[in-house]
Each structure stands twice: as C-alpha cells, then as structure tokens.
Amino acid sequence: MFNWDVIEHEYNGTHYEFEAAGKKWRLPHISDLNNGQIIAADQGRLEIVFRDVAEVWDGKKKSWKSAGDQAALLVLGKHQDQVAAFKVAWLAQAGMEPGESQASSS
Fold first, then answer.
1. Which of 2, 36, 51, 96 satisfies CB 3.0 to 4.6 Å to 91 for a cystine?
2. Is 80 within 8 Å of 31 (Cβ atoms)?
3. Nearest to 30 by CA among 15, 45, 12, 51
4. How many CB atoms lie within 10 A of CB 10?
C-alpha cells in the first residue's frame, strides 16, 4: 500500500529530536544516513551512528553542534531493549517499522 506519510517525511528530511542526559539532541531523518550508518543502526550499533551524526543543542549559541563521542556515550552501556525501543521510535518518526526498507514493496 502506498504510504504518503513516508514520502512526505522523506521529502522534508525531518530531524528526530529527543532529550537525554538533561540535553536536547537530534538525529537526521533515517533516509539521510549513509549505507554504513544504516547497517550499524540495523545491527543495533547506534553508538556508531550517534558518533557520526548526532547533534546537541548549544543553548549559549542557540544552535545545534556536532556531538561526536558525547553522543555515543548516550548509547554505550544501555540495555539492548532500551536501544531497540529508541530505534523503533526513530523509525516511527520516519514513518517506518523495524525491518522495513524504503524500497519495500507492498
């Protein structure tokens, strides 16, 4: 079935924003990841993805800045269930479900 919401989210490239460790964070839309990052996310290795693409809000400068290793620490040491729940929420924001590809047919 054609999913207009997925097309709209992909077109808009909506960031995924969340709060953790008392800070505001954001990740790019899942479709903006490169192949290596998609594979890492699919394997539950979100620390790799976070290190590469996560941004943290800098309240003093009122702008987003790259978070790097600081973002990877959000994921490291978390229980697999917590990481999986986060991934489900990130995918849902993009209009997708785990195991679903943008190239999936109906």
1. 96
2. no
3. 15
4. 17
